[in-house]
Structures are given as structure tokens and as C-alpha cells.
Amino acid sequence: KRARPDVVHVQSYHTLVAPLAMLRALLLRVPYVVTFHGGGHSSEARNRARGAQRRLLRPLLRRAARLVAVARFEIEQYGEELDLPPERFALIPNGTDLSFSAAGREPRQGPPVVATLGRLERYKGHHLVIAALPALLEREPEARLLVVGTGPYLP
Which SUPFAM superfamilies does the annotation name (predicted)? Predict the structure, then answer.
């Protein structure tokens, strides 16, 4: 006997799995939730296909029980691009409890280091960290910025 889920949680919408999962949930009359995770990887072909992809997914996304964004900019971006009202979104930021990692360790010596990690694309917001660097250097002249990642912004 097949199990019937109480809810289907769709992670992102950038692959063929997402619309298939949403359609299956509709057929089973099971509510589904879609969590957005950024804009997906960029390539010339993907960027050209995004408009059609969004037009095809819009009706399925409108039928979701809830849409989840991991950042405020996603609510604005996807709301506009997919014509979805902001009140349809729940904001649940990614995060973790890091208290365990510092337990029993001596504080790091040397200048403060600010790190930004992720795919090097505008929507990830690395430019905001870079723009804040002069203000940080006024307060902490020895501070360093570490940018880790790969993508279209890589020189």
C-alpha cells in the first residue's frame, strides 16, 4: 500500500522535479509548499529559458498552500517576477546554531575577518558586503574581507 503524504514540500523550482511534484500533489489533493532557494545557476541558455519557465510554473505556484522565502529579497524578486502577492510568502531564513563550534576555543588572534561565501552572482548580495567594507575599515582598519565562491562575478 502506498503512503499518502500530509503535505509535499518542494525545494526550489529550477528542475523538472518541482513541477512534477506539484502536479502529483494536486492529483492526490495534498497541499504543497514551495521553498525558494535563490535564482538557480546562471548560464546563457538558462537565462533565456527562465521567462518561459516562470510562465509555466506561475499557475502551480499560485496553488501552493504556502511559499517560503529564505531571504526578504526573494519575496520581492519572486513576487514581482511571478506575479505573486507578498502575503503568500513566509520568510524562514537559513541559519544554524554556531555556539557549539566556539566551545572551549581560544579567541582567534589577529585582525577581524569578514567572510562571504556562496555563488558569485548579484542576487547573493556579495556586493553589499563589499560596499560596507569602507565603513568597517573606518572602525577596524586591520579588518580583512574574504570572498569565497565561483560564478559569473569571478574576475
Answer: UDP-Glycosyltransferase/glycogen phosphorylase
